[in-house]
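User: Please run a holo structure prediction.
Assistant: Happy to. Please share the sequence and the ligand.
User: Here you go; the ligand is 2-acetamido-2-deoxy-beta-D-glucopyranose.
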Amino acid sequence: MVPAWLWLLYLSIPQAVPEAQPEELYVEVPENYGGNFPLYLTKLLLPHEEAEGQIVLSGDSGRTAEGPFAVDPESGFLLVTKALDREEQAEYQLQVTLETKDGHVLWGPQPVLVHVKDENDQVPHFSQAIYRAQLSQGTRPGIPFLFLEASDEDEPGTANSDLRFHILSQAPAWPSPDMFQLDPQLGALALSPKGSTSLDHALEGPYQLLVQVKDMGNQASGHQATATVEVSIVESTWVPLEPIHLAENLKVSYPHHVAQVHWSGGDVHYHLESQPPGPFGVDTEGILYVTRELDRETQAEYLLQLRAQNLRGEDYAEPLGLHVVVMDENDNVPVCPPPGPPLSIPELSPIGTEVTRVVAKDADAPDSPNSHIVYQLLSPEPEEGAEGRTFELDPTSGSVSLGIAPLQAGQDILLQVLAMDLAGAEGGLSSMCEVTITVTDINDHAPEFTTSQIGPISLPEDVEPGTLVATLTATDADLEPAFRLMDFAIEKGNMEGIFGLDWEPDSGHVQLRLRKNLSYEAAPSHEVVVVVQNVAELVGPGPGPGATATVTVLVERMIPPPKLDQESYETSVPVSTPAGSLLLTVQASEPMNRTLRFSLVNDSEGWLCIEKVSGEVHTAQSLQGARPGDTYTVLVEAQDADEPRLSTSATLVIHFLKASPAPALTLAPVLSRHLCTPRQDHGVIVSGRSEDPDLASGHGPYSFALGPNPTVQRDWRLQPLNGSHAYLTLALHWVEPREHRVPVVVSHNAQTWQLLVRVIVCRCNKEGQCMRKVGRMKGMPTKLSAVGILVGTLAAIGFFLILIFTHLALARKKHLDQPADSVPLKTTV
Ligand SMILES: *[C@@H]1O[C@H](CO)[C@@H](O)[C@H](O)[C@H]1NC(C)=O
Ligand SMILES: *[C@@H]1O[C@H](CO)[C@@H](O)[C@H](O)[C@H]1NC(C)=O
Ligand SMILES: *[C@@H]1O[C@H](CO)[C@@H](O)[C@H](O)[C@H]1NC(C)=O
Ligand SMILES: CC(=O)N[C@H]1CO[C@H](CO)[C@@H](O)[C@@H]1O
């Protein structure tokens, strides 16, 4: 047994010393060697010191059979013992080792490759002795229709097996002796160009060709073999095809046979190309088929190209074109246009305006009934009782235009249009197309005031600027907010800019306001004409009368209420004051420049009367029932004569006193009477009665007035006392002390005459008596005045006498009833 360590060593050698592996030896041996054997091939480099070993030669597959090889142990040469045949075995893989008897390898293994060098000892031969081929007319020249096959056993890749084909002869040699050409290397038999042209004209053949195959390539020498080729000529069946019409969506079993082509030559492979690529195929028999349903809408036509090819994939002839037409079926619904945003159409658009055009698409074949679409308007339906429709639809074009029925601004209308193919015939397909239409507003309405006449509005003269006079409201029938915006203006009646307008831009209300002070004097009334118009431009007829409003303003005159010079009036009168006595005068306060009308409000006793214009308050009658110490309050009202509603009032307080002692008044004889200056509280009674019986007749009352002389009017005051007498007093506080002749006009029974009442005005003592005689008075000593006094005295005497007679005459009547204090002057006579 080999010790374990030795085995390990043995195993590790190839790995440990790879460079110790000997190179393979290559040895060539000529095939069919004709010399002596053994033939020494090569010397092996065996080690000499280990000669006790045994040389072992083994085959490539580990076989011990070394065949014709051996190693000469003496010389170490590898030798071959007999001739080798390459065709039997071309190479030998040998291995030489030096081993001990027990099989331990001392040297090697040395690989040796023995190559048998080829000798052209093999003859080529055809695969068939006779080849038969069909040749179709129309086969293109140079396209092989037959491939001759030949083989040579000699070493491939060497000249010994390099075969060449040749046509040796052609029978018949007509119409051309070289109708065919044979590829020398490939053995591919094809028509020659000359042969092709002559074959096209007439049907020839058959032809018999003698063909040769020879080895040694193009060298003249070499082995050769021959074979016969019989070529029969057949008519071409490779003819153009009619177009094929295939229905789409065809329900048959697939693949479905649709046509057939045939190449009458031999060894044909059919090939199909579809443009564009489609579900078509061709089988080996030339049967064309379709593999699935077609869809015209995907692809309406295909152009197929069919080729008849030889084994090398070369076309025998020009490819055949085949037109496949997919026939339409009404399998597509009309497709509505995609819904867009709502269409806008202005109101009042003219009839016939095209609103939109509904164009549905049908994918079926164009210009066929399947894609012939007609339209029908389903909605909106005509209004009940309306004359026409709002929209009209042209069934052919799908054009939607405005009809007779008017649009209304702000309307949203859904148009429903039915699109039907097959021109609307039964069995067609249809779709409902919808279009939303919005009717937009246009500014066709002018704003109008709700009221055209406002007022009259009364405004006091003193209202402050800024005061609201009136609010006018206008409306606009348009919808669009921009078309409702209004502008206001004063068109007339505002020359001085007294009025102004205020408004909010987006409201229909406008305020007419005062801008300046009103003045009644300048204008007692105003007619303000306000107009309204749209901010936006108006379409259509202009604004009507409603765009104008008239505000009538009346100015109220402002007059302050009348004012009296005192807030209350007070006076004291004796209870014995006779009727007609002036108590006081109520009058307006100084700056007042207007006429007042006075009246008593609550003179319940009827004691007083007031002069309407002058404001003088008199006793209306004797104060019967008044008691001394009492007060009597009466309300006096003063009204503006022009503006009766303006009035004021004041109280009039009368204190009653004890009856005053009889005033020193003197009646006739006129000469003896006198009045005190400064004025005292008494006067002169003037009787209206006349001695002239003509004048004194009748019983009506007498009336008295001072003469027209202004001085007289200023100095004197005459008040009626009773029906026949008047009471003459000084009007001024101071009247020049002298004798005065006061003209008094008396009217009675429609007759008037004048009295001259002589009154002596003098300074008086406390008792009211004249302090000086008239004659010594200042300004009296003139001759003229002395004569005047004398004449006056005489006249007075005369007058006195008349009075006496009159008195006597009256006394006889005895019906005079005089109060004691009413005749104070008699005593002084
Ligand atoms: C308007 O009237 C007021 C008082 O009534 C007065 O104070 C003001 O001055 C007047 N203005 C004009 C411009 O006359
Ligand atoms: C009073 O009014 C009258 C007319 O109205 C006028 O003529 C007169 O001048 C006025 N007098 C005064 C003091 O205002
Ligand atoms: C008249 O009216 C005033 C004020 O109202 C009142 O003070 C007075 O007593 C009245 N006089 C009579 C007589 O009624
Ligand atoms: C009718 C009447 O009463 N007349 C008297 C008017 O007053 C004078 C003076 O007081 C009398 O003398 C009249 O008798």
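The chain has six helices and 52 strands.
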